[in-house]
Design goal:
The protein is an alpha/beta fold and 499 residues long. It has 2 domains: 2-375, no CATH class; 383-497, 3-Layer(aba) Sandwich (D-Maltodextrin-Binding Protein, domain 2), CATH 3.40.190. Helix content is 66%, strand content 9%. It contains 22 helices and 9 strands. The protein has helices at residues 2-25, 36-49, 56-59, 64-67, 69-78, 80-120, 122-128, 134-154, 158-173, 178-196, 213-223, 227-235, 237-248, 258-278, 287-298, 300-307, 313-340, 346-375, 383-392, 405-413, 438-446, 461-471, and strands at 197-200, 206-209, 398-401, 423-426, 431-432, 435-436, 452-455, 475-485, 489-497. Strand 8 (475-485) and strand 9 (489-497) form a beta hairpin. Helix 2 packs across helix 20 (405-413), helix 6 (80-120) packs across helix 8 (134-154) and helix 17 (313-340) runs antiparallel to helix 18 (346-375). The protein is elongated and about 85 Å long.
Length: 499
């Protein structure tokens, strides 16, 4: 009894230490100013809390109530670091649920290995320290998978409904999670159908389906929460159709080799967990769980292949790692058990599994830290720019800026009295009383409507440079700042109106 109590205590300490390590990897929350993507979440969330229209339903790939409000509230209270901190909490909780998923199939050591893999994975650290809806959605997916696995292993029917509810909320938080939901449900339905099929052999082979009430009950409980998604799609069908046009169709790559690039990118991020996962697929005891985790592990690949866009591939691999991390841990544990389980005691087998798992985690952690540097600098860093504008902008000014939502967040939502601009216009779209497009920009510059014009040449470089000749005699270059794109490239130019 004392030995069991000691083992239980050590296990609890191990869980706490594992989560502490995960939190440590997610502790750098002030590494730079907000990305454009983060500023959208923070500023639009602030607008919704102020009761202002954001058009989020037609511009955001998620229900704004879930994808804007939590981060907007955190950013309003404590700035971008608080919003990132909220996501860091979601990230640590995801590590916990990944651990518990693995424990259901592969024991304590499997749980630790899976948690370690997810803790140090570069994209997982990034989305956990990035003020966007990805982290919450991935957490909800991990909760859903855990509840479904628990329902299966412990035969608790009500957990199927709770798991589906968590998955439904995950989809509403980030629509991309629908791929995990659909493929998981299709897989579950196939497993249920197989359980109800009976093959009889005699003079001729016959197949019959036995309608098992307990299995039908589980299918109904699993499917009911997803009716909320159908209702949501029905109510917001017009907005979702516009969103599909804006955020999916217009972003599809024209590269004829994009599918190959997506597959190559997917395997480059996940080759080791994928390889280790293959070793778990032979085990008979957990075959249903193993195949289910593999379905989750491959679920986002069709998403990218269908929309022909690899720009979000690195982030969305976190959804797949919810399945692959436990499965990879299972590959290590079950393979060693089959190979040397007869020669080693249970304790020694756990030690050997742990050592190999630790080596995998260290490797992935080293690679992940290298990845993180690039992930955190693909948008321009506006630290120096925002400080300059905070000091220089006067109340009532109008600013033209590429990625203008960053200035909207820092100067309007978090602005100081006397230095809050009346409006921040983006180089991505602008219209006045006479219309929009290039002509609107030209009218505004000719009439000197902007107090400051900020070009960082990240997205609209050709258009920015096209406007510069029109600014001659009307605006002068005031100051330049390093954009630090990918750590060292780029330049931000600030032009001030000539009075």
């Amino acid at each position: 009894m004392k030995r069991q109590r000691l083992i239980s205590t050590l296990d609890k300490v191990g869980i706490v230490l594992t989560l502490a390590v995960a939190a440590l990897f997610r502790s750098n929350l002030n590494y730079r100013t907000a990305f454009v993507d983060e500023a959208i979440s923070l500023y639009k969330g602030w607008q919704m809390l102020q009761g202002q229209e954001t058009y989020g339903l037609t511009t955001r790939v998620g229900w704004p109530i879930l994808s804007y409000i939590p981060l907007g509230l955190a950013g309003w209270i404590g700035g971008v670091e608080w919003a990132r901190g909220l996501n860091a909490l979601f990230g640590v909780l995801t590590v916990l649920f990944v651990m518990m998923i693995a424990r259901k199939g592969y024991g304590q050591i499997g749980g630790y290995i899976a948690a370690g893999i997810f803790s140090v994975y570069g994209p997982a650290i990034f989305i956990s320290t990035f003020a966007h809806s990805d982290s919450l959605s991935v957490l909800l997916v991990s909760i859903a998978i855990y509840l479904w696995v628990t329902a299966l292993t412990e035969d608790k029917s009500h957990l199927y409904a709770l798991g589906s509810l968590a998955m439904t909320i995950a989809v509403l938080t980030k629509y991309a999670a629908v791929m995990v939901a659909v493929l998981s449900v299709v897989y579950g339905a196939m497993v249920a159908l197989k359980a109800m099929i009976t093959v009889t052999r005699g003079g001729s082979e016959a197949i019959s389906i036995r309608l098992d009430s307990s299995i039908l009950k589980k299918l109904v409980l699993t499917g009911l929460p997803f009716l909320l998604l159908l209702l949501y799609a029905l109510v917001f069908r017009a907005q979702l159709a516009e969103l599909w046009q804006r955020q999916v169709l217009t972003k599809q790559s024209g590269d004829p080799n994009v599918e190959w690039e997506i597959i190559k990118g997917f395997t480059s991020y996940l080759w080791l967990p994928l390889l280790l996962s293959l070793f778990a697929l032979d085990e008979r005891r957990n075959r249903v769980i193993n195949m289910g985790l593999l379905v989750v592990g491959l679920s986002m690949l069709p998403y990218h292949l269908l929309n022909k866009d690899d720009s979000t591939l690195f982030k969305f691999t976190c959804y797949t790692l919810v399945g692959l991390a436990p499965l990879a841990a299972g590959g290590i544990v079950t393979t060693l058990r089959d190979l040397v389980g007869q020669k080693l005691t249970r304790a020694k087998l756990s030690i050997v599994s742990g050592v190999i798992g630790l080596a995998v985690v260290v490797y992935l952690g080293t690679v992940g830290q290298h990845m993180l540097t690039g992930f955190r600098s693909y948008w321009s860093d506006t630290t120096e720019l925002m400080q300059y504008l905070r000091d220089s902008v006067k109340g009532g000014d109008t600013i033209l800026m590429e990625g203008g939502v960053v200035a909207q967040y820092y100067l309007i939502a978090k602005g100081s009295p006397g230095h809050i601009p009346q409006r921040v216009v983006d180089t991505w779209w602008y219209e006045d009383e006479e219309g929009g497009g290039k002509e609107a920009y030209e009218r505004a510059i000719t009439q000197k409507r902007f107090a400051f014009v900020v070009f960082d040449y990240t997205v609209t470089e050709d258009f920015d440079k096209e406007l510069i000749p029109l600014m001659q005699g009307r605006y002068e270059l005031e100051v330049s700042f390093p954009a630090k794109i990918y750590g060292e490239y780029g330049q931000i130019d600030v032009f001030k109106v000539i009075e």
